[in-house]
Description:
This protein is of the alpha/beta class. The chain contains 19 helices and 22 strands. It is globular, with a radius of gyration of 22 Å. The termini are far apart.
Amino acid sequence: MTYAVGVDYGTLSGRAVVVRVGDGAELGSAVHAYRHGVIERTLPATGETLPPDWALQDPEDYLDVLRTAVPEAVAAAGIDPSAVIGIGIDVTSCTVLPVLRDGTPLCRLRPGSRHAYVKLWKHHAAQAQADRMTEIAQRRGEPWLGRYGGRISSEWLLPKALQVLDEDPATWAATERWIEAADWIVWQLCGRETRSAGTAGYKGIFQDGAYPSRGYLTALNPAFAAITSKIDGPVAPLGATAGNLTKNAAEMTGLPEGIPVAVGNIDAHVTNAAAKALDPGQLLAIMGTSTCHVINSPEISEIPGMCGVVDGGVIDGLYGYEAGQSGVGDIFHWYVTTTGQTHEQLTEKAARQPVGAHGLVALDWLSGNRSVLVDHHLSGLIVGLTLATEPHEIYRALIESTAFGARKIVESYEKGGIPVTEFIVAGGLKRNDLVMRVYADVLNRPISVAPSEQAPALGSAIHAAVAAGAYPGVREAAAVMGRLEKDVYHPDPANTAVYDQLYAEYDRLHEQFGVLDTMSHRLRRIRDAALSQEVP
């Protein structure tokens, strides 16, 4: 018997799973919560108050996952570590950090500089830089812009790097390499820097073998042309071997020295293998704190508001498309925390209410809009509130708003020539029966489910098995090791008819407050001005 280890790095924790290579059975897992969590309010080293929209992490938390979760998962599986033949990892993206040429994180050397830390995927403070990048790319007619839906997101690598240059030139100058967390962790495992085709293509604007031109980068800021020297290097295909586990990494994880380390991957994209969602038309929604909507196609199409289309971005031989919602589970968690009630309490009451009985419609932009508007300075909205409105009704309206947002993305794919033949859900929210039933009704299509409780980690283990040579490719490995339950939830025609009416109202709000009216931006400016006057 041989085994592969997959490690999935999420927003608040990392989890490891031990998978039997022969059939994909998950034999043991362990979760390690990050000691620093998400650094959003104050910088730990100094107590400095962080501005709005900041979200940082400490890379030492990632290493702690390797030190604790991996050995614990192996122990839980009850296997001999020597039988592990490979390890793969995936990370939320774009989560990026500045390091020295040897991989040393800059925050170890400059703990008092907020720009020296990891910028998490939901760090949205680079919106001004993203807007500037979009405007200049449009003006110059950059050929790659259409592959990213016509707009640059503040979540991506280049806007975050440009923010460092704009706001902290000293940290920018000290940064020798600017790297995705997935690629950095692989570097720590095998001692060799490798750039993943997924992280480079979707988050680094790497298209047709090149990053944006020097002329474009110089137009953003003459000094920004140096970014190419901080991100250059070979870009490796997914499922390939990045290197072999070093002696230090073997001691850290308890795994055999020298086993292959798979090229790093994005948490959403690696899940396609775990869910057997690799064929054209299969749209996989990875639903957690946020949602990514990933689909493959043999055709390349430029679809407004998409997060990117990358050749081989999910699997070799097909174009991988990504769209997403920057807040889903985060929205539900915010509301539960705000009201002091539990998900179970709110869900029980909300599930008993007929569709449309609350008289509400909401916009799912409490963390901005990733697709299709690509604007993280948009904010949420609830219409229809009265003195009779109860908390569980708002909760249901928020769930419905995220389903409407998913429908908007599905419609955008199909309008762009990418048909959606199956809607598959992975991630923690698949356990919520009400959420799944609402999505089936709003989308008016059956929903299939990836049953693994650790689907991204399983996907990473599948890639590890391929890197170790157990299978000729990811497709072959996924056919044996992946899991999919077909058509678990079905739409109710009566509910769908009402949701069509509510979606029409959502669509009007989407147009009014996402395109025609910049009220969200004006309110944000008022807020930021007020916060800047606060006395520390």
